[in-house]
Amino acid sequence: MARRVSNRRKTLVTIVAWAVGIAIFFPILWTILTSFKTEAEAIASPPKFLFFDWTLENYAEVNSRSNYFLHFMNSVIISVGSTLLGLAIAIPAAWSMAFVPGKRTKDVLMWMLSTKMLPPVGVLIPIYLLFRDSGLLDTRLGLVIVLTLINLPIIVWMLFTYFKEIPGEILEAARMDGAGLWEEVVHVLTPMAVPGIASTLLLNIILAWNEAFWTLNLTAAKAAPLTAFIASYSSPEGLFYAKLSAASTLAIAPILVLGWFSQKQLVRGLTFGAVK
Amino acid sequence: MGKISLKNVTKAFGEAMVIPSLDLEIEDGEFVVFVGPSGCGKSTLLRLIAGLEDVTSGVIEIDGRDATEVPPARRGLAMVFQSYALYPHMSVRKNIAFPLKMAKMDAAEQERRVTSAAKILNLTDYLDRRPGQLSGGQRQRVAIGRAIVREPAAFLFDEPLSNLDAALRVNMRLEISELHQSLATTMIYVTHDQVEAMTMADKIVVLHAGRIEQVGSPLDLYRSPANRFVAGFIGSPKMNFISGAEAGKHGAHTIGIRPEHLALSTTEGAWQGKVAVAEHLGSDTFLYVNVNGMDPLTVRTQGEAGIHHGDTVYISPDAEHLHRFDASGKTI
Amino acid sequence: MATAHSRVAARFMISPAVLLLLGWMIVPLSMTIYFSFLSYNLLMPGMEEFIGFTNYRFFLTDPAFFAALANTLLLVGGVLVITIVGGTALALLLDQPFWGQGIVRILVIAPFFVMPTVSALVWKNMFMNPVNGLFAHLAKAIGLEPFDFLAHAPLASIILIVAWQWLPFATLILLTALQSLDQEQLEASEMDGANFGNRFIYIVLPHMARAITVVVLIQTIFLLSVFAEILVTTNGGPGYASTNITYLVYAQSLLQFDVGGGSAGGIVAVILANIVAVFLMRMIGKNLEA
To answer: Which residues 196-235 in chain A show a CB within 8 A of chain C?
Structure first.
């Protein structure tokens, strides 16, 4: 329902909304700006907002000094790896629950969700010890396994809510039209499910990329993703604002971009379909 | 060829018996309508024939061959779904060609059949659109197109018109009837709307709680319903039922009389009553009349009756068209 | 809805997910329960012995536990209040027509995509630092003494940081709920003589009640486990001033190597989370039937 709104009111709302939006975004903006300053300018008083000598030296230094690329690749491998593995396990499960629901399907779904509610500290010690004893501590494989498991319920749920929206009649129509199981999957199901699978993929890469309990506790150096690498800036390097900002900007930039693409799916995925 | 017979077919979902043992013969080329209130098992019955559901027991034969265990794709039947079930990611052309592609037909033949189906259904200009860009009626036609290109032994329609608005529904009804005339293929059509059943069917199967109440031509069912359920379900407005003393006079537990078989007079007649509501349709007038000692009666008279709310009227049943039912609802 | 053949296939397809999650849930959790009854310190291997509920007694009577419990509740409660109130206000604002809606929306949700360690460090160093932080500059500019947030108000500072991260989540969900409100309902209430305040209280809020509940429950699940923000900013200090249960269990197990005590704490955390989870599951379960 498009209502006519007076221009004065619209102008007022525009000003307020932009002010609030910029205020909320400001810490990120400030980080990005600071990453282009020299260390001296970064702590200058009064702070310099836009008028400083823009430089890329922090990015060069972060990269050369701290093996940044290794940690970046760890983040990529761990988040993408755990998401793909999770999808491989979850797609058949979600598919069968959506299209061949049984009496206990609902219970299974709810139970899966309940595993997500298990606070990580409840299993921190056993996982730590199991990983230590099996040599998985500080390995990418170890983190891929853990992140797959903690995100599996979300992946199953997201896919389930998407698959459920594919009308069963369409699959039946395909069956009547002579499609076998394989053709049904290739020609009908997959094309219709791809958007849902893509959003699930996106959201889970984001969640895995930002996961900061297991990545901090199960890695030391070798397999540390960006979450753990940035945590190492806690002190004293954290006082080098420009370098901290450069490292942070690099760490959050890819996810900010992905996140903006997936904002619609975010609501659905994180509320397990309860809000659409 | 499309002769379908069901023998002792039953269907249970877990504990719930949806269709207790049922027999039915559908002749080649017939237009058969399954009609009944929602939940009567008519859609389940159609899906059993389609093979989308397994029968719990019994045999389904198509053209004399046992098809009970044959998967839906190889029964040679085509189905039009209530939601149309078009593939949203395919163009109209690809939707219609899909069953042909599944049958691995060569491309030239596919094209030929799609073109001719599109011509029959007035879809030629829309072949490259997606289903999302079509109107309800056009989608319906695509669904039918997808069914006819296969040249199936029989068409199955599952409430295909229920998502269309009233005017379009009448048009599509005619188009489907015409299609049946020209193809002369068996059609099985499920609906809850007795008007659709009466207007389209060669043979109507009235279902109630999973049982067949009566099978017959539309006029058979209208003239001689086998029981009170069929009598009340077929015909619009609904038949009036009167029980008690008035029924006893005719030696029945209940008597039924259709609104069009009640004679109306302002001066004399069998029953006296007061008009509660008068609906003036121009061609007909429907009166809802309160008569002492009876449920309100519906009366239909042709033309403009000039009778209004509050008027006193006299009503007489036409003895020839009186239906008598026993205590169990069976016609006497 | 289906044939017997497809039902067998379905069971087969679902089993890997079920078995993995079952393993993930049962194996470590039963190990935690087992450890929680042992006297077990990683620094003294081979000395494990069964000591019954002693670990629980120590954990539950430790003053640190009460501090941590109080901090956990304050942290969860504080963030919830800020995000729900702020999120509702923001959702109402963003739902109005204005120029650049899409861009402002993107600006507002951005903090949610910032990894916890980055947001904690940025806030800690570049904003809250008493010497070079932006807040310190600001205070000096208006003639005030800079305030050392993390030393003097550690928990409040962490609440602020975490609330900044979760405000977008609440806003986005509440905005989605708001946009699904039937405009005709609002118009009907307007015809019935309801003013803006009435419409908000009688139409909008009830419509959003469900979304608000979902936000509360889901955030609670995550907020009970806030960890990285504390680790990076205060290490739970000064003293136990900003230690929550999650951080306490971590410190006990991986800093003091007290596996027995840490496990008992872990089980306590599981029980606390379960109380919330029961409510959340009911909500979502209802939605499944709809």
So the answer is: 206, 209-210, 212-213, 216-217, 226-228, 230-231, 233-234
- pLDDT tens-digit profile of B133-172? 898 888 988 999 988 888 888 999 998 888 888 888 888 8
Close Cβ partners of B216 (under 8 Å, ≥ 6 residues apart): B203, B204
Cα–Cα dist B157/C66, whole Å: 68
Measured in whole angstroms, the distance separating CA C141 from the mean position of its chain's CA atoms is 35
- Tell which residue, B12, B105, B106, B98, has the closest CA to residue B55: B12
**C167 vs A23: CA distance, rounded Å:** 13
Here the tokens at position B120 are 């029959």
- Phi and psi (nearest 5°) for B311? -65, 150
Residue A188 has pLDDT above 80, yes or no: yes
Q: What's chain C's length in residues? A: 290
Residue C268's domain comprises: 57-289
Cα B223 to Cα B218: distance, rounded to the nearest angstrom: 9
Nearest chain A Cα to B152, which residue? A177
Structural domain total, chain C: 1
Secondary structure element (H or E) that encloses residue A190, with its range: helix A190-210
What is the rounded distance in angstroms from the CA atom of residue A230 to the CA atom of residue A212? Answer: 11
Q: C-alpha distances in angstroms, A200 versus A156, A185, C23, C115?
A: 9, 19, 24, 19
Nearest to A173 among B74, B77, B85 (CB): B85
Q: Hey, which chains touch B, using 3+ CB pairs under 8 Å?
A: A, C
B314 interface with A at CB cutoff 8 Å: no
What CATH number does the domain containing C90 carry?
A: 1.10.3720.10
Q: Where are the alpha helices (DSSP H) in B224-271?
A: 228-233, 245-249
ipTM of the complex in this document: 0.83
Domain ranges for chain B:
4-232, 242-325
Residue numbers in A near C107 (CB within 8 A): 21-22, 24-25
Q: Please indicate whether, in this complex, the C-beta atoms of C125 and A216 are within 8 angstroms of each other.
A: no
Residue C191: its chain A contacts at CB < 8 A?
none
CATH of B242-325, one of 2.40.50.140, 2.40.30.10, 1.10.10.10, 1.10.340.30: 2.40.50.140
B315 strand-pairing partners: B264, B271
The answer on pLDDT for A43 being more than 80 is no
H or E element that contains B278 = strand B271-280
**What is the pLDDT confidence band of residue B245, given thresholds at 50, 70 and 90?**
confident
Which of A167, A177, A188 shows the shortest C-beta gap to B83?
A167
> Of A69-73, A113-117, A256-260, B23-27, which range is least confident?
A113-117
Alpha carbons C214 and C162: distance in angstroms, whole number: 18
Domains located in chain A, CATH noted: 7-59 (no CATH), 67-232 (1.10.3720.10)
Question: Three-class SS of residue B106?
Answer: coil
